[in-house]
């Protein structure tokens, strides 16, 4: 049981530490979708 908790804790730590880059990338993706949706030619 302790081994499972240790694996879970390490996995969670890795996900939390990598979330900074993921959130920044997701923000850029949402922004690019917004640019594409505004209808201006060349934004997609």
Q: Can you describe this structure?
A:
The chain has 44 residues and is an all-alpha fold. It is 82% helix and 0% strand. It has one helix at residues 2-37. The mean pLDDT is 77.
How does the SSE layout of this entry go?
Layout lengths: L1 H36 L7
Helix content: over 70%
Q: Quick one: biggest sheet?
A: none
Number of helical segments?
A: 1
Along the chain, the helix and strand elements come as H
Q: Characteristics of this structure?
A:
44 residues; mainly alpha; rod-shaped
Outline:
By secondary structure, the protein is mainly α.
């Amino acid at each position: 049981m302790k081994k499972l908790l240790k694996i879970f804790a390490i996995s969670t730590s890795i996900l939390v530490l990598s979330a900074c880059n993921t959130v920044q990338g997701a923000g850029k993706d949402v922004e690019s979708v917004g640019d594409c949706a505004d209808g201006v030619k060349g934004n997609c």
